[in-house]
Amino acid sequence: MRGLNGHGLVYGGVEGGGTHSTAMIYNEKGEKLAEVEGPSTNLYQIGIPETNKRISDMVGEGIKKAGLPENTTLEGLGLSLSGCEREETNSALVSAMVEAHPTLSRHYDVCSDTVGTLNTATDSGGIVLIAGTGSNALLVNPDGSVHRCGGWGHYLGDEGGAWWIAQKACKVYFDHVDNLNTAPADINTVQELIFTHFNITDRFGILTHCYDNFSKAEFAALSKKIAEAALSGDALCIWLFHEGGRMLGKHIRALSNNVSKELKEAEGGLNIVCVGSVWKSWELLKQGFLEGVKDERGQPSISELTMVKLSVGMATGATYLGAKAAGKSIPRNFQDNVEKFFHYKS
Predict the structure, then answer these.
(1) How far is residue 281 from each of residues 40, 87, 155, measured CA to CA in Å?
(2) Strand-pair partners of 340
(3) Using one digit for the tens of pLDDT, what is the confidence trace for 274-290?
(4) DSSP-assigned beta bridge partners for residue 127
(5) For the segment 302-332, what is each residue's pLDDT rounded down to a tens digit?
(6) Phi and psi dihedrals of 70, rounded to 5?
(7) How many CB atoms are located within 10 Å of the residue 339 CB?
(8) Can you tell me the distance from the alpha carbon of 76 to that of 154, in angstroms, rounded to the nearest whole number?
(9) Which residues contact 210 (CB under 8 A, 6 or more apart)?
């Protein structure tokens, strides 16, 4: 059962998103031995067999990078993957993994990326609010009860995520030119950003990017250029991020009635773990976010909250869960895993 090279038991964790993934290898002392990057591991995008192959490849690369023998079997592997919300799907993933890659790990834990994120930041509960390519919010109370808002993908949700902001920019622009709805501000900068990003010369050129060759990640990447233009003062781009922030705030409002008294009364109030590239534009999101948290009477649905970002990858939390699945525990220091960036009290 013991690992080689003096590392003792070895554990792994994988953070899997719709655009890219990260795998980490830890020893039983809680020391990170290796970290490797990889492609998407969203099973709804690529299927279970390819998802498992990519996970196995990343773990194998991590083991090699850690200086461990190539035939090392992990004691526990936590898989915190976008799309892994249902127990039936997660069980199917593990069964297929054990069959196709029997020596990868002895024990597994499979969960959504939101659960892995929260376990990176705390073991006492809180809210994870993801705003990356898509968006999702998950509340876990200290008693283990779970509530969610969003996470339904770009057809049914993703409000406030990068894809949603980019799509809204296109929609506002197209509606304005069609004289269907008037844009809230001048459209010239947004038009230029859309045409440049998709390398098109007229509005019809975008159709292939929406339908024939749609890439959610490529579409979402437009939001970065919108953020840059907002910081330069473009009014429509500022409005788009304000709307994104408002929708993210509404996720917190949606969950507020289910937040336990213990979480509300904790030091600093409700702990919200924020994950995803959209949070890099917090100053553009902030006012909209605080509006979105308010109820229909204009009162904050949460009286006090502290927002934190992970200062380590969420594969860290996945590793903790992998160790737990093996009936073990590795040393954890949650204070070192997060960085506070905003506190609000009404």
Answers:
(1) 24, 34, 24
(2) 308
(3) 988 999 999 999 999 99
(4) 139, 272
(5) 999 999 999 998 899 999 999 999 999 899 9
(6) -60, -25
(7) 11
(8) 33
(9) 219
Can you tell me whether residue 148 is helix, strand or coil? strand
List, in order, residues 6 or more apart from 266 with CB less than 8 Å away.
124
Report the C-alpha gap between 174 and 156 in whole angstroms: 21
State how far Cα 56 lies from the chain centre: 21
In the predicted structure, residue 45 carries a pLDDT above the cut 90: no
Q: Measured in whole angstroms, how far is the alpha carbon of residue 123 from the centre of its chain?
A: 18
| Sheet strand arrangement including 135-140 | 146-150, 135-140, 126-131, 270-275, 304-310, 338-345
Look at residue 32 and give its three-state secondary structure. Answer: strand
Six token digits for residue 262 = 């213990």
Partners of 148 in the β-ladder: 138
CA 293 to chain centre: 20
Check: CB of residue 51 under 8 Å from CB of residue 41. yes
